[in-house]
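Hi, here's the filled form for the chain we discussed.

Project: internal
Contact: R.S.
Residues: 95
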Amino acid sequence: MTAVDTPVCTGEDICAKEGFAPLIEARAISVEHPDPGTSGEILETKRIADMTRDAGIRIALHQTGTPVMAMTNAQCAMAIDNSIALEIHSTDSLW
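And the returned structure, exactly as it came back:
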């Protein structure tokens, strides 16, 4: 395994807690970046966040979706202790 000095953020295309576990256990990331819409919705995202918190890793949620999904993700982010950001892509959305 090779260590890098550059902070690594990944996870927007990983599903479920089991998908994130190897990265978290190996401390291979600096910031976890799940998308609640694809990682298992709010409850599974909270489980992922708790696992990252226990490992000392921060979390920044990823989101591309509707205004309802944006508000859902904002609520999810507020329930996560180690949350540092909520990324929202809306350049292609009419809203």
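Let me know if anything looks off before we file it.
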